[in-house]
Structure formats: structure tokens, C-alpha cells
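This protein record is not my work; I was only asked to verify it. Where you disagree with what is written, explain briefly why. This is what I was given:
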Amino acid sequence: MTTKFHLTFLLITALGLVSCASYKEFPDRVINTDTELGYLKDYFLPKKVDEYNKAGIDEAKRQRIRNEIINGRLAAIDIQFSLFQKNLHEDGLNLNIGSDAIVLGLGAAGALASGGTSQVLSATSAAVTGLNGSINKNAFYEQTMPALFAQMIAQRKKVLAKIRTGLASNSSDYPLQQGICRY
């Protein structure tokens, strides 16, 4: 086996390991997501809406049940949105960095196959420089994704403000169905 082969193998292996690493910028949740969503599933069941409807003219009870249902659903929606955000971000990072690493590895392998110590050093340098650029570009965000999430979060806050205003009203002015339809 030649030195060039060993260097090529070492470089491609290193790039492959880097590309397989999972980049995590979101903290782990305090409680397991499935457990947390399990606690909130009752707020989506028809029996809870039936409980609201059966409260009749007892305004305090109707308002309490309405608020429980809407707040429970909002909590579940927030969890799902957080997971969506985290997964989209991490999947994009891993895909971009992984594909960049493969392209760089193949380019370096091609340069190494043609021979020469200077070509080996040049290819290795290009691979390291390219991978560093990929990590900087992808791991520290592109400008589009943060802007998109900022818009989504701002819109969610507007809707939440309307819901919170409605929850302060009585159930005749802001019935359960209106609160559910807001999101």
C-alpha cells in the first residue's frame, strides 16, 4: 500500500466521521416529548368538549373548562412547533455539512490519485479549508432560516395575543370554538 492511499483513506475517513456527527444547537427538553404530549392528549378528545357543552349556564365552569382546553392545546402545539424547528434545523445542518464533506473528500481523493507530494498537501489543505467553510456556513446559520423562523414566531405571538385576550372574556363573547379556530 502506498503512502498516497493511506493519506486518501485517512482523509476520507476523517471527513466521513465529521459529516456523520450530529450538530445540536437546541437544548434537550426537560421532560420526554412523548410523555409531555401524553399529558396533553385529553385536551383534544371530544369528551373534554362535551364537558364544556354540559356546563350549561354555569359561566365560571364553562370559562374554566374553555381555558383548560385552549391552554392544553396551545401547550401541545408549542411542543410540536419546537420539535419542528429543532428537527428542520438539525436535519439541514447534517445534510449540508455531510454533503459538503463528501464532495471535498472525493475531490481530495481525485487529486491524491494522480500523485505527487505537493498534490497530497494541496488536496489535504483544500479539503480542510472547504470543510471549515462548510461548517462556518451551515453550523452558524444561513440568513434565510433564522429570518423565516422569526416571521413564524412573530405571527404565532400575534395569534396568541388574540387568544389570550379572548380567554379573559366570558364564554358567550369568546366561546371554545372560537378559541380553537384561532390556531
About this structure: The chain has a mean pLDDT of 75. DSSP finds seven helices and no strands in the chain. The longest helix spans residues 59-113.
